[in-house]
Design goal:
Order of helices and strands: EEEHEEHEEEE
Strand content: 35-45%
Number of helices: 2
Number of strands: 9
């Protein structure tokens, strides 16, 4: 099940003929690094993942940092464990990207 704290930002897949946008499934809530908890770090990491036409993960890029490298790394680690379904145009899978946001709020990790 996808975590409520990880939301998918609406993809810009509006090309003519796209019958199914790419999907990222089974994205779990990332671990909150203990050092970040102690220091009170909070923030949102926005990642962009390339979903290859074969359903594999390509690059993961940080679009917006949470302001703490450890939080960003935790978000990347969680996204690497997800399952990927490629977008299809006229039934043919193709490579595209998706943006996923991970919110790190101390109150959500009590």
């Amino acid at each position: 099940t996808a975590t409520q704290n990880s939301k998918e930002i609406i993809a810009d897949v509006k090309d003519k003929g796209v019958t199914m946008g790419a999907m990222v499934k089974n994205v779990f809530k990332p671990s909150y690094p203990s050092s970040c908890k102690r220091q009170g770090h909070e923030g949102t990491t926005v990642l962009e993942v390339t979903i290859l036409s074969k359903g594999k993960r390509g690059n993961i890029d940080i679009i917006q940092s949470a302001g703490c490298k450890s939080l960003d790394k935790a978000a990347i680690k969680a996204l690497k464990k997800a399952r990927y379904i490629p977008a299809k145009r006229l039934g043919v899978p193709f490579t595209t990207t998706k943006k996923i946001a991970f919110n790190f709020r101390l109150e959500d990790y009590q």
